[in-house]
Write a structure and sequence with these properties.
Blueprint: H1 2-19, H2 24-42, E1 79-86, E2 91-97, E3 102-106, E4 110-111, E5 114-119, E6 123-127, E7 133-137, E8 142-145
Antiparallel strand pairs: 1-2, 2-3, 4-5, 5-6, 6-7, 7-8
Helix pairs in contact: 1-2
Length: about 150
């Protein structure tokens, strides 16, 4: 896009020099106008380092994280469900931490204090120490349930 802007400015400058060769004042005025236009076209807007429309992508969608979960880096609330594979004999899920580290779990393994016990088509189910269940889906929603 900048190439076409520069090409347009050069064409205007050549046209200004050839067509106004007899009238020096008009020629200089037109050249000044072309220089101003060139300056406006070549000045590019600065792009912010982070996308202001992205929001808090790295954080969980829950507005209130339960107490005691903030300081635990292996808390389920610090992970996103990235993928799942369900087979006849084995089932796996992959979760990604807020730092970008991927962890693959199979049924029965623990993620922090929560045990991965089951999965459905779009969600993984973890059992907490107190017997309740945490259900993590691909929309990064974590809901607590008494049964699943």
């Amino acid at each position: 896009m900048n190439f076409f802007k520069i090409l347009l400015v050069i064409t205007l400058m050549i046209f200004a020099k050839t067509s106004l060769a007899d009238n020096h004042d008009q020629k200089e005025e037109l050249i000044e106008q072309v220089k101003e236009i060139t300056k406006e076209l070549t000045d590019e807007d600065e792009v912010p380092l982070n996308d202001p429309f992205a929001g808090n992508e790295g954080t969980n969608s829950l507005t209130s994280m339960p107490e005691g979960e903030q300081e635990d880096e292996m808390s389920l609330y610090n992970f996103k469900l990235a993928g799942l594979i369900s087979g006849k004999d084995h089932s796996y899920i992959t979760v990604v931490s807020s730092a970008g580290e991927a962890i693959t779990l199979t049924l029965g393994q623990y993620l922090g204090k929560n045990q991965f016990i089951d999965l459905r088509l779009t969600e993984a189910i973890f059992k907490k120490e107190d017997g309740k269940y945490l259900i993590l889906d691909f929309n990064n929603q974590i809901r607590e349930a008494d049964d699943y």
